[in-house]
Design goal:
Blueprint (H helix, E strand, L loop, with lengths): L1 H4 L3 H4 L6 H17 L1
Length: 36
């Protein structure tokens, strides 16, 4: 799954000031990958 997350460049290289936003973006990408 982590290899597939790297396909999402926006998530893989995203650095936000707020860690909640960063982890929510990872959760969103993981959910989409799970449903595909």
């Amino acid at each position: 799954m982590f290899g597939r997350l790297k396909d999402w460049r926006r998530v893989a290289t995203r650095y936000d000031r707020c860690p909640t936003v960063f982890f929510s973006a990872i959760a969103l990408a993981a959910t989409v990958i799970f449903w595909l």
